[in-house]
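@channel sequence for tomorrow's demo:
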Amino acid sequence: MGWGWLSYSYWFPRVHSQNVPNSALFYPAVDTDVTPCHYRIPAVYSFGSYLFAFCEQRLDTSKDYGRMNIGLRKLCLKDLGRCEDDSEWSKFCQLPLLEGYRTMNPCPVGCKETGKLYVFVSAINAKIHEAEILKGRNTEDFKLFVTSTIDCGESWTPWQDITYNFNENVPVGSKFVVLGPGHGIELHSGRLVVPGYFYRMPSSFTEEILRQMPNGRKSPPYNNVGCSFCLISDDKGETWNISTTSDNFTYCVVDNMYRHMGECTIAETVPGKLLLNSREYGNGQYRILAESEDGGTSWKQGKVCTQLRDPTNRGCKGGLAKLVLEDVRYLIASNCGHPSARKNLTLWISQDDGATWSKPWTVRDRELCGYSDIDTYMDPSTGTAYVAVLYETGVSSYSERIDFISIKFSEVLEKCSY
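structure tokens (generated this afternoon):
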């Protein structure tokens, strides 16, 4: 008879499956000025009295090349609740265009004291394919920019090139330094932290680390090793830098093989202690978690978390958010729940700062799901806590549109039982 009938339902049961109502937020018809186009790489961020939703507007193709801009819609928190459609959201608009570049990976973070919202992007010369940079060519054509707003996105400052901030502190042999996608966080201390990743040539590691890598082991993509890090600011966003410590990034080695970290999200569990949740770019099936005990200045080595799924074939970008209710700390994670495909938007909860995780809740069952990002917010009129989810989905491809879901946290807590 064989074991084929056990391949999915037995080993990877759908726990608490329920399709929560969703609404399309970024889709071809949302922007009537440019058609057809594609929307990918969501970022959702609660700041001030608004929930901000960002994405890449890809004008030529859904692939990782061609013309790209950053799209934005926002919604006043008092209008949120559980949104059944996008009618209360602002109209689609673009962040300032960056002439000669395609802007990617929107990553917002805000400073409560100043009321300023920053948005970081990675940018590549519009004439260069990112594969060239991954191969170590045309690296000068890859840059990092930031813009900001103090009026909730009504106006934006000119893009500021912050690429030079990384020249001295990114480890030797690094290339393709990327911020986001997703969102950053403001720590209890006021420090602003933005997650990121870079690829590093294996030969640039120390002899001690190289001994953990089998001879002849190839490191995709293009024989690189994926590492995660954080960009930090201790002056309310006036300047941004990578820590100057030698362990200002994290990597993962399992069974003498590198596990390739990459796109990641972060949360502050207790004051000064961070948890980083990374995609696994190899053929692993699980997320990689790493800790920092000094606010992102230095990082411990990453470890595989077998309770958080990551689809095989290079994983997927997931979300991570923190919520504190009645002195109880919760972490909420999002990702594809399917073991081998970008399907089934799923949530997990941790009540011990990421040491253990709940059973998964399949929020959108049997539905395509790509990149996702999550944040939490409080309904200002009722004090009810919500989880906001922005994720890629579609009928024939997960890159057809970006949908939004708002769920009461009490429902998430009930479904994600231990």
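heads up for whoever presents: DSSP finds three helices and 27 strands in the chain.
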